[in-house]
Design a protein that fits this description.
With 227 residues, the protein is an alpha/beta fold. It contains eleven helices and five strands; from the N terminus they run βαβαβαβαβααααααα. The chain folds into two domains: 146 residues, Response regulator (Rossmann fold); 64 residues, Winged helix-like DNA-binding domain superfamily/Winged helix DNA-binding domain (Arc Repressor Mutant, subunit A), CATH 1.10.10.
């Protein structure tokens, strides 16, 4: 990757760190504080303390470990995307588990790096994410490609037998994080009508939450991943 001076950004990127390993956290803090493009607005060892803080309205991007104690990184992504959908999240991990990568991306992470990423590459990745990119360590990117290559593409008949058109429409809006009252307006149904269809979506996909329904919808190619 190029160094940070080769990247063009129009404002300071306000960053929050969530990482339980104090040595890794200190290293990330040093990288961010040394870069004139970044402002470190918070650094935490777990999601619980991070979510209890009042920094989120002044945060642009979160650099977060996936293997956190208590609330996991994946659950942390889900929480942040539900509460603050404009905040960007880049995950970082020691392990390259395919299922965790898939879950983190489906939950809303825009990038996925390993902790072996060099300081210069980390800086470039954060700026890339802020500028609209989806930075990934090459080994992670290969796993992501493999995940989608291994997803069986259902034909239209099978697709229709899983979800009807209205259910697919609602699931697609759910994938974009829209509140249920907004979904109701867009599909011209009452809130109760939306909940009725969501119950059927959960039953058909054998899931129990919005995040699981969206993940299964993408995995089964019922909806496209949100952009």
């Amino acid at each position: 990757m190029k160094n940070e001076n080769s990247k063009d950004i129009k404002s300071i990127i306000r960053i929050v760190i969530i990482e339980d390993n104090k040595f890794t956290r200190s290293g990330w803090e040093a990288v961010i504080q040394a870069n004139k493009n970044f402002s470190l607005v918070g650094s935490f060892s777990d999601c619980e303390n991070a979510f209890a803080s009042d920094i989120w309205m002044k945060t642009d991007l979160v650099l977060m470990d996936i293997g956190l104690p208590g609330i996991s990184g994946i659950e942390g992504v889900k929480y942040l995307k539900e509460k603050y959908p404009n905040i960007l999240i880049v995950m970082c991990t020691v392990y390259e588990d395919s299922e965790e990568i898939f879950q983190a991306i489906c939950a809303g992470a825009v990038g996925y790096l390993t902790k072996r990423t060099s300081p210069s590459d980390l800086m470039d990745a954060l700026i890339d994410a802020y500028n609209g990119g989806s930075p990934m360590t090459p080994s992670v990117a290969r796993k992501v490609i493999s995940i989608f290559q291994n997803i069986k593409v259902d034909d239209e008949r099978t697709r229709e037998s899983i979800l009807n058109d209205r259910e697919q429409q609602i699931l697609n809006l759910m994938a974009y994080g829209k509140p249920y009252n907004v979904i109701a307006e867009e599909v011209c149904l009452s809130i109760d009508g939306v909940y009725y269809h969501i119950r059927h979506i959960y039953e058909k996909l054998h899931v129990h939450s919005r995040a699981e329904a969206v993940a299964q919808g993408i995995k089964k190619r019922l909806i496209a991943p949100p952009k």
